[in-house]
Design a protein that fits this description.
The complex is a heterodimer of chains A (106) and B (548). Chain A is mainly beta. Chain A is built from two helices and six strands; from the N terminus they run αββββββα. Chain A has helices at 3-9, 101-104, and strands at 18-23, 31-40, 44-49, 58-64, 70-83, 86-94. The longest helix of chain A is centred in the first third of the chain and has 7 residues, at 3-9. In chain A, 32% of the residues are buried. Classes of the chains: A mainly beta (106), B alpha+beta (548). The interface between A and B is medium-sized, with 29 and 24 residues.
Chain lengths: 106, 548
Amino acid sequence: MNQDRRDAERFNRKQSLGFELLIQSAESDPKKVSGTTIDVSQSGAKILLPVELPLELIVEIAIENKEGKTLLLIGEVRWCRAADSGFEAGLRFLDTDTDDFEHWAV
Amino acid sequence: MPLTQLDIALNQYLTTSLSESKPVDLRMIMQSLFSGETIAPELSSNLSFIENSFKNQSELLINQCVTDYLKSNMTLFYRAFCDWFEQCLIRSFALNDYPESLDMLLVLISKIAAPYDDFGGQSFTKLLDAIAQSLLSFVDTYKDKVLDKTQNRNALERLQQDIGEIIKENQASVKQFEQKVIESESQRWIASTSKQLIKDTIYSLLSNKRLPVFFVAFIEEQWTRLTHLNILKSEHLYNEESIKEHPHLLLLNQLLPMFDISDAADVQAVFSKDIIPIFSEIRNCFSSMIVNEREIDDFIEKLERLFVSLMTNNAEGHYFEWLTMPEFAKSSDHDNYSVSLSIGIHQFKVGSWFAYQTQQRTINCKVAARDQQKYQIVLVNYSGARVAALSYSEVESHFHNGLLVPQNFSIDLVQMVANITDYLDKQTEYKKAAIEQKLQQELREQERKQMELEQFSHKLSSALKLVEQCESGAQFLDKHNEQIIQCMVRLKSSGAWILVDARGVKVAQLLPHEIAHKIALEQLELVSLGESAQARLQDIFSQLRQRK
């Protein structure tokens, strides 16, 4: 079992956290979408939101960590499918030099 | 040795062509090939080039030895000649030994085939076929066989003997034919010229003589005809001088002075002693010929009556009509066989070849006989069949009008080989120049690539500097997909940029040097460094954070 896996397991996987998701597009103004997490881990999250997201879309997420602090994470849409109350999507968080990813798993 | 010159030129040409990258010992390759050794793979790929070169040079030489007409009409002979020489050339090249018999065979076969035309006859075709079979048999026997110098020489000498025998046999049969033609021409000539010769001689004897008309009529018809027949039967060949000694004409000459005697006593004096014996001589002369005896009897009877009446002063003699023969003038036809050749008789020696143009066709023919007595030349084709028999005046006229053109079928092997070596030398020079040019081109290409590499390296370094300045939002023109893409975020772990399209969808994940490489390759073009976009993004997130 590697370190990432162990870190990920420290999370309560079935957390329902609210978040704001920002879709940046050069074609139009940045679009903000609200949603909730269904399942989270250190490396990603399964989310529920009202719009369909294209695969490999890079999104910014403003989300609270377990300490209640709002963090900015960058994620890549790995999958997206229709659900009963909107769309479910899988996000993989990216560890970039402009986000708060380092605080997410703490 | 002309073929050694060909060897040198061929060796230079092939060596130059094959040694673009590294020198080769071609003779060694050929020796290995003949001894069945395996040759280096890089050289075996050149084998077809080597074989083709030998084939081409062989054909070039043989094409000079034979006419185009023979090439297209005696294809078996032509191919056999080419294949045989190609095999000999390759083997001699490998052994570095050119036996004299090879030169001699080449010249002999070429010379034999040179007069080939449509009119050479079956014997000629058979001769060429037999030579072709002999050459093919040689090729088959020694194909793929390892021969040393001595064995090679022996094989060629045997072939020389074989072909010599074939030619000898052919010439013997042709000679028989020729002899028949010459004999037949001789008879024909005698038939056509002797009658005129007799007539002329008889008229020269009768010239200015006063003679009885019946006598002149008999001489003109019967005497001339019978003398002609006698000459045709005779084996003796008469000319202007010897014809006068012919018994019939001697007899006539004896008889003629008798008509000059007008005095009865003089006639009486010779009648029994001279005239009567002449009558029996006349009978004897013509007894061997198939003649109407009544005509002879009638003639002799008339002569008797004439001389008797002259002798007895009988008036009957005066009843015979007399005429004075005109002065003899030589007929113009006679010139046909009395001229000598002013163009030089040596040109028409027996065995010499001419192209004879007759009835809109040109025939290669040779002088089978030149008869100085008949002033006639007999021309035959290659097989010994008659082409023409020409009088000297016809020969002279045809010669001047270009209808009879001397042919020189001798083969100048030195010149032929020189033509090929000149060609090969030029090809070698051309190859050398081409190799030099190729080397120069490669050098220039290397320099160009080096320059391009330097330019690229410079471009890459400049591009890398620019990429290092890029911030989130930096935009590039993706030339391949013709769209603007931008740096969205940079991964902390690897330093790679996530590049997204206008919708924000990831299109690539590239390290800075990879982006720089694409810029240097002109696949990407930097549009903006993205500072303003970054600043805008920072603003947005600041707002987001604050609102949360």
